[in-house]
UniProtKB/TrEMBL annotation:
<dbReference type="Pfam" id="PF13360">
    <property type="entry name" value="PQQ_2"/>
</dbReference>
<dbReference type="InterPro" id="IPR015943">
    <property type="entry name" value="WD40/YVTN_repeat-like_dom_sf"/>
</dbReference>
<dbReference type="InterPro" id="IPR011047">
    <property type="entry name" value="Quinoprotein_ADH-like_sf"/>
</dbReference>
<dbReference type="InterPro" id="IPR002372">
    <property type="entry name" value="PQQ_rpt_dom"/>
</dbReference>
<feature type="signal peptide">
    <location>
        <begin position="1"/>
        <end position="20"/>
    </location>
</feature>
<dbReference type="InterPro" id="IPR018391">
    <property type="entry name" value="PQQ_b-propeller_rpt"/>
</dbReference>
<keyword id="KW-0732">Signal</keyword>
<feature type="domain" description="Pyrrolo-quinoline quinone repeat">
    <location>
        <begin position="61"/>
        <end position="232"/>
    </location>
</feature>
<protein>
    <submittedName>
        <fullName>PQQ-binding-like beta-propeller repeat protein</fullName>
    </submittedName>
</protein>
Amino acid sequence: MKIAKSLLLAMTLTACTACGGALNRADLFSSDWSADRAQGVDAVRSRLAGTKPSPGTDIAIGVAGNGDKIVAVLLDSGEKWTYAHPLDARPAIAGQVVVGSGGGEVFALDARTGKKLWARPTGGLPLIGAGDDGQYTVITFGRSGGARGSTLLAVERDGDVRRQIETDKEVGVPAVVGGLAFIPWGRQYVSVFDIVAADEPARILFREQVSRAWTQGGSVYFGENSVYRFDERIKDASLQKASHVMLPPRELPGSPVLMPPIEERPKLVATARDRVRTYVRPTNNVQTTAANPGKGGGAPEEGWLVVANSRYYATYFRIIMGFDASRGGLSWVYTHPTEVIAGAAGEDGFLICDEQGKVVFLSANQGDPLGERDLGEPVKSCVVQVDALAVRGGRPARPVSLADELAEALRVPDPELATGKRLLVREIASLEDEVATKALIDVMNDPAISPFVAADVRTALAGRRKGGRYMLAALERRYDYLHNVLKPPPVGPIAQSFAAMNDASAAPLLSSHMLDPVTPDQDLQETAAALTTLAGPAEVPTLKQFFVLNYASATTAPVKAAVVSTGQILLKHGGKDGRALVDRAIASKLTAPDLRAKLKELYEVVR
């Protein structure tokens, strides 16, 4: 006889606990709810006055082996532990415990030692998340086969199940403080559930998606697309006046999210969603800056939470970026050797976990690597929890400019990063520092650069108005296979930049590239057009050679355009000889008809 998994779970759990028991309350997560003018929230805050969440263990865990082993490293001491057990979901870190599921059961481990605390059968229900306050661990499960509904367990430290709740609502990740479970559900509610009394003393209504609750730094937070704090303002969440962090809007590669929607349950193996994420750390430290896009920085507007170090972070496979939380501007870029699959924002830094099991500490201000922990082996997925850990370090001995950091990221030979690289090019283009020009040229010198990225770099170079010395140095380089110079310089965009600056110092070098056989047709067209502004009598001999060599053999539109531009220069600066040469090209039967027509029009232009 087949028994439904949810029923099996109820049977196995209620049979093993003497207190509490299974609940199936229609009113606990009912939307037929009347606001109590925040009296319940005020009562909960009074009850928890002086009770702060215990600091969570600073730890990174990974799924290793064949998905049958948890590996862990303590971030403060570097001590490691492992726990072998079949896994069917990514484990969760809740305060001072690690909760995992697999083999038809859910289990809890001491986060510092890896010691098994308890295990209970589940019937194979999928794990969603967990919260813990040192006395109770509250775990939420989905339903098998994608069925609607959730199951919640409140388990005491000795393994006894104090409460089991069945509901047809979609429940998120809970937090627990002082015997009260904060349970998000319905994408906009948080019910406060008294585990002992089996009662709901308060409920909070939000006006945006909220699917997760957690404790950090002595406070309780809720969120999904932004972060809300449980404090004296939380009773006004329905009026959109609660203390919160909302990151300033800006374009980011891969469109990362702060927290994935709850229906996207973390897979056992990390996905692209794990590699492309944003992270932020709200804090009680009043010396940092509020994330307030409405004011563009400065003093916090009422209702805005403070962000640690005024930094938020984004990961994009191997690229990690630090942003100003007030304005959204890019502050630094760090390029990691391997792909990042998890992270966590601390009070004074950012931690990343990669697929090789390395956990790296980055400084908040500059993104400098400050230290490392090692899980001991490659991992399929990773989870990092940072609560009280301090990540500090001094300024590097040889500071690197943001432009150089961006250039390094752009040179990473990975076609999967093309979308992100295009955004980074725009970031370089926005920098006033002339070193940004050098960085763009360096990127163009990379033979492996993506054609899509190269097109953006060319546009950015053409728009530069600083860094002329770097562009002149680039023009002096020539393709030389024997000396490992495998690409000609981006002559066309450089020419456009000098023309826009009306700087004729580059005219001799630009003219010489017109005769270089490796100069691409597009560059010939752009360079010749720029020389109509920059060239003078000194460049005429070189441009005569180009004109003679190409007017009868030009077949592509860019080369024909380059011939027309050089013809214009010859008419302007070449005297009688220049005019005679253009006349000869017009009269020649070898000149293409469309090119001949364009050359005739030049007499109207230069008259």
